[in-house]
Each structure stands twice: as C-alpha cells, then as structure tokens.
User: Which sequence fits this backbone?
C-alpha cells in the first residue's frame, strides 16, 4: 500500500477521543443550563420585589390623598390605583398569591398593611408600609386565613385561584 493510502486510512478520531469530546460538551452544557436557571430565578425574584415596591408606593399615595389618611380597605379602591404586575414572575400554580392585608383594629387600624407574594422561584416576599420585611412564610401559610393569622384583615388576593388575577392587578 502506498503511503498516501495508509495516511488516509489512519486519519480520523478514535472512539475514546470522540467520547472524551462528548463528555466535555456535556459538562459545558450542564454549566450553562445551571447558570441560566439561576439567572432566571433571580429575574423572577427581582420582578416580584419591584412589583411589591411599586404597589407599596401606590398604596402610600392613596393613603396620603384620602381623608382620613388610611390605606385602601376595599377592592374598589384598589381598582382605581392602576396596579401593574409582572404576572409571569409569580407562582400561578397556587390558589392565593399577592395577598393584601390591612390592620383593621386597634390604634394602627388602616395605618399598616402587609402585602405578600410568591415568585416562580419559590421565594416568598413580604412588604409592609415600612418596606420589605424578613419573613419565614411558606406556601402552607398562603391560605384564605393568611391575613387573620397575622392579626389583620384581608382586603383582596391579587390572585385568588390558580392563574386567575383580580381586576385590580393589570
């Protein structure tokens, strides 16, 4: 056989070399997917936090403009606030999400609120009139009795059934 034919028959990669390249590609793909999922979860969390912060500002604006100065206590008032939410960032598989509670008795009646929402990442955020609140809430806490469990009254759930939003959330 001539040298040209021998070189042609020996050209190419061995099975071991091909498997090695496939393993490296698999490892790199795993790293990219894990990083993408983490970035996506952080994006959902940031959107929910931004929504809660914006809603708190709208609630405060409503309180300042009302006489007497109280946070909104009805769904009808919430409907007038033009509240917007990044609905794709919320866990829409649960029955109660974006829960708006208000103090309805005592010295702080209608002067305090609690707004709680769960993002698609599974993180639960709580906002009060004083800003974000550290919390230990779990999905099991997000029930029809959530507000009363906190010693407050329920004004409205932004999402009251799986992926069904109230009219006050646009």
Assistant:
């Amino acid at each position: 056989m001539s040298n040209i034919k021998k070189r042609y028959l020996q050209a190419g990669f061995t099975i071991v070399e091909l498997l090695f390249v496939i393993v490296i590609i698999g490892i790199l793909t795993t790293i990219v997917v894990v990083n993408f999922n983490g970035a996506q979860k952080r994006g959902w969390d940031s959107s929910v936090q931004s929504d809660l912060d914006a809603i708190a500002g709208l609630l405060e604006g409503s309180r300042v403009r009302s006489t007497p100065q109280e946070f909104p206590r009805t769904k009808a008032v919430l409907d007038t606030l033009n509240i917007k939410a990044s609905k794709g960032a919320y866990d829409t598989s649960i029955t109660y999400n974006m829960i708006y509670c208000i103090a309805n008795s005592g010295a702080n009646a209608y002067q305090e609120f609690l707004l709680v929402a769960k993002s698609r990442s599974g993180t639960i955020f709580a906002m009060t009139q004083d800003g974000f609140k550290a919390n230990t809430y779990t999905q099991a806490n997000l029930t029809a009795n959530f507000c009363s469990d906190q010693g407050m009254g329920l004004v409205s759930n932004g999402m009251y059934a799986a992926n069904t939003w109230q009219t006050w959330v646009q």
